[in-house]
Amino acid sequence: MLFNFLAFVEELRKKEDKKEVVEKYEKHFWPVSGTIQDQIWYKEYLINFATIPFRVPKELKNEFDWDLLQKLVAASFSSECVFEKPSSDVETAPSNDEENPVMRDFIISVKSGDQSVVKRVEELWSFQILRLYEIYIEEQMNLQVLMKEDEKEKSAILGQRQGRLQRWKLVIDSLDKEELEKQAAAEKEEKLSDLYSQL
């Protein structure tokens, strides 16, 4: 894997403008060790986000934890994301997942001030994906610290987290419903075919 969580935390420690994030996090919780999945913000929040397969850059397929990236994006307060069926002129790669025979595009939208950047994950370069991991992990660490230091902020952050989670569940549920409807239509077509062949 190209992203190394502990190495990233060590980089933060060495930067004057970033080391405070790690220092406060460790002061309020515990020394950073293990994996991302061992962190309190993952156990309390990110773990609740379901994931589905999506299209990724072919040459990077085995280089990143794509489920983790999806969770980080969906959980972030600074981004929006959607799934989209690839347009018909795009060659779609079949999935090993029987419930999702055609991979969807995962589109991330980040707004900063007046500027907005919208990208398909499949279009990203490895350095851009690494940067997304860094941004989203630092965001989660900062929010966890803020919740510990300020009761009003804690309430607002927990409310925002709940909203993000509910929105994500709606996204996943709508995709599930769409797949079930497609499956029902295919079964109906198959039954009609069988009937016609018997005539």
What would a concise description of this structure say?
By secondary structure, this protein is mainly α.
Question: What report would you give on this structure?
Answer:
It is built from 6 helices and 3 strands; from the N terminus they run ααααβββαα. The chain has helices at about 5-15, 20-30, 40-45, 65-75, 125-150, 150-199, and strands spanning about 80-85, 105-110, 115-120. Strands 1-2-3 form a 3-stranded antiparallel sheet, covered by helices on one side. Strand 2 (about 105-110) and strand 3 (about 115-120) form a beta hairpin. The N and C termini lie far apart (about 55 Å). Mean pLDDT is about 90; it is low at about 90-100.
| Major beta-sheet overview | 3 strands, antiparallel
Average pLDDT rating: 88
In angstroms, what separates the terminal alpha carbons? 57 Å
What structural class do helix, strand and pairing data support? mainly alpha
- Proportion in helices: 40-55%
- How many helix segments? 6
Strand content: 5-15%
Number of strands: 3
Provide the low-confidence segments as ranges. Answer: 89-101
- Which overall shape is indicated by the principal axes computed on the Cα atoms? elongated
What is the radius of gyration? Answer: 20 Å
Provide the succession of SSEs.
HHHHEEEHH
- For the largest sheet, list the strands in their spatial order: 1-2-3
